[in-house]
């Protein structure tokens, strides 16, 4: 997938999530292909925006390169590892009679939803003084909700339970990885 296709897929998820989720569900891509086409370009964009934002707006010139390396590694690793671990955890939690396990569907659902969140992270990384824009990432909850019936066999009555359980698990995993990996990087890279 090239940059134009990525842009249109994310745009369609934002503007017409139902139709785009139907198109995503019809694709038979494995997790590596979804990661390579959706998550990796967004993480690269976040890395570039983080470096530019730090160079333009961070005033600690003597510590800037260590700060940039720490910030990029922290975001890239926590977003990647958080996505994989939270998808694995959510798929394991399907045993709670929510629906059948489907790692490909769970990962694709979470990766495409993250594709909606990552541009917001990139803008905030580029312009740190616009951190209030982070609230736009909450629209991803609606996009996620619209994707559940297309990507997973979760009944209508179980969908709210799945939504709460999966979002809580994903948030906990991402926060724990971000915190512990951040502490590790702060200790290692000065």
Write out key terms for the chains shown.
190 residues, mainly alpha, globular
Description:
Helices cover 77% and strands 0% of the residues. The chain has 190 residues and is mainly alpha-helical. The protein has one domain (3-188). The longest helix has 30 residues, at 64-93. The radius of gyration is 17 Å and the shape is globular. The termini are far apart.
State the major sheet. Answer: none
Rg of Cα set: 17 Å
Mean pLDDT: 87
> How many helical elements?
7
Strand tally, please?
0
Structural class: mainly alpha
**Secondary-structure element series:** HHHHHHH
What's this model, at a glance?
This protein is mainly α and 190 residues long.
Give me the secondary-structure topology.
Elements (H helix, E strand, L loop, with lengths): L2 H13 L1 H10 L4 H27 L6 H30 L9 H24 L12 H13 L7 H30 L2
